[in-house]
What we know:
Layout: H1 2-5, H2 21-29, H3 37-48, H4 54-69, H5 82-96, E1 100-108, E2 111-118, H6 126-142, E3 148-155, E4 172-173, E5 178-184, E6 189-194, E7 207-214, E8 217-224, H7 225-277, E9 288-295, E10 303-310, E11 314-322, H8 326-342, H9 348-363, E12 369-377, E13 381-387, E14 393-396, E15 401-404, E16 425-428, E17 434-438, H10 440-444, H11 455-464, H12 470-484, E18 494-501, H13 505-520, H14 524-537, H15 542-554, H16 558-569, H17 576-588, H18 592-605, H19 610-622, H20 626-639, H21 646-655
Parallel strand pairs: 3-4
Antiparallel strand pairs: 1-2, 2-5, 3-5, 6-7, 7-8, 9-18, 10-11, 11-12, 12-13, 13-16, 14-15, 14-17, 17-18
Amino acid sequence: MYQRENHLSRHTNPFPEILDDTVYNRILKDPNYWISQDLEDKIIQIISQSLDISGILYHLGTESLITNAYDLLPLDDSRIDLTEMIERLPILINRLTRTVYLNVKAISNQKVIFIFKYLPDYQDKWYDAVFFQGMLNGLAVLFELKEFSIRMTKTKLFGIHVSHKELGEDILFGADSNEYEMEWLEDNLFLSRSRLTKDDLTNRHRVMVTSRMDSQLEEISIVDVKDVVGKSRELAIENRDLEAAVEVLKSFKQELEKKQLSMAKDLRLAKNIQKGLIPEIIPDWNGIQFWTAFAPMQEVSGDYYDYFPYNMDKLGVAVCDVSGHGVPAAFITALSKLLFSNFKKPKPSETFKLINRELLDLVKQQGYTTCVYVLIHDDYKVLYSVAGHPRPILFRAKTNKAEICEGDGTFLGMFPDAGDTFLDFQIQLEPGDKLFLYTDGLTEAESDKGLAFGEERLIQIIESCAEKSIQETVETILTIHKEYTMGTDPMDDITLLGLQLSPRLPEFNLIKTKGDDAYQKKEFKEAVGFYEQAHQILPRELDTQLSYGKALAYSRNFEKAISMLESYNKFKTNHFKSHSVLGYCYYQMEMFEKAEVEWKKAHSINDSNLSNLYNLAQLYRKLNEKKKMKDVIEKMKRIEESYLHILPLEKKWESLPDE
Length: 659
């Protein structure tokens, strides 16, 4: 095996350091040639460094038993069974080696313990343990046992470093002997010596007669030892090839698992990044309320939606569907956010033309996106353009009817001349009107009968929700959609974005104005009452949230103010005042670490505000953090050295104990 694996010539001695060519050739030619255990150990150690030979040694043990069993048979042609052969096995061990002797201990008629003991001057070897167990397997082969077990129970070795599945489990290491347990269920075969051969009477070599008692009839056959060994060797080669294939499959599996773990980690990272790109909620804007549903098919999505403020008078809203799924699609969604943020043109068609050109340059026609882009003006005029995307659905509150809006255009990022297909369309929103933007994953999803959800069904559901808010309408659509597709796997990402011009907008404006007037007069408790009413009408209107939070703080309702301002800051408006007032609330609640965080955020937004730095200095004084307080005072001096609060702060700083 070593010669074949290393492509060596049969006449080339691969072990010149430990044996000469004469000894090497004798080993190859004469199976009865004896070598010392020391030389055997050296040869096996060299071979085992480049080959896993445990399986080979096991099968050699099996062959050795089969080959030598003939000499254990009675000379008078009488037959013996497995039990008698086991009793004669110590004779064979004594013939094969001078370092080990074998004791056999019968536990029952069909259970035996084999005890191998080394002579005092010799040391146990791992390869002996494998070889001897292979010999015991030879007994099972010779007597054609179908149900049996052979396992090592004890060994003097402290852990066998070659893994072989045949050795057994729960082996006691460091014992005083090497022991094996053999157990079998059937024992109805007998062996005897024969002077005949199967094929040629003149060719006298080792042939045995087998006899089996079956239903009172004796079945007799002749077995050539060469045939048995040949078949055993074929099985050994097949088994070795199978084990090699299993090892290869194991390595592939391990490599695949590593790649899967790596991919899962990358996907989690991509998912978290995309989660930061796609807003969880869109704030109310100028009396328009939004509600979204987003169901990615995989960890990361090819669907994308976002909103883009245009100063105070316009708001852009986009819903996109990138070709494909997974990370490549998510990459284009990230590009889309960047491009929509950069190109805020007065007409959606102009924005599309610029984005189309940029995507062509960046993606090289390796991906594209469909999109509908809506530009809402402060007078509720809506301009929109469609790029190969499902057209918006408009619900009119006056008629309680929904209809698909007009519009057409080709994909973004695929065709250089696509700009000619992008057109602008206009609608005017009235109080109570709703507009729905969605991806085709919503309407093309199928029932368990293969029927698509469809636009007509979507329109019917929208019309049935005439009296419901935009949130209730979107959630109703999703509930019915989930029931319709129950029992099927999702075929695509699903995005649904609904917006509604509040029917209570006039009422909201009146109450909000009263709250603003009370706030200006520093009548904070009265302002809180008006803002609370306005907040109930438009709960995500950011200006109201901020004013409401400040009024709560100044009326010393710190706990509720914290809740309102934290909700406001989730929209990432980066408003200096929201963090400053929130820090003040935390300070009053003696949540000093959080107060420090918020005042630092406020400072990062507006680093020239002295009142915020003054608050930080007072906080560090409270915490006896002298060095931090000194740093803040120095910052205040750099901004305005004559600021009247600096001198009192310095005196307080001097009174602090050294850190």
